[in-house]
Amino acid sequence: MRMMLRFTLPVEKGNQAFKDGSLGKTLESIMNKLKPEAAYFGPSDGMRSGMMFFDLAEASQIVEIAEPLFSNLNAAVEIVPVMTGDDLRKGIAKTTSK
Q1: Which helix (H) or strand (E) holds 31?
Q2: What domains, with CATH codes, occur in the chain?
């Protein structure tokens, strides 16, 4: 299932992680595991943040994805299911054909 990982980092921890190199290492590790179809990074509400869109094969992957963000970066993490435009059209067609 296609999912969106959205995270934000507290400013102080983000600054520390940037300086000690753990920010780049943690994000590279997560991207290598997820192989996201898209990833975007930038400021949000004055904090470092990012979004990655990826396929979640099984629910147990959530631990592998979220724990490094929690434990290494003190990140706030959201993982939510998302659809493409084609998925939305397919869902609407199924719903309106009944």
Answers
A1: helix 22-34
A2: 2-96 (3.30.70.260)
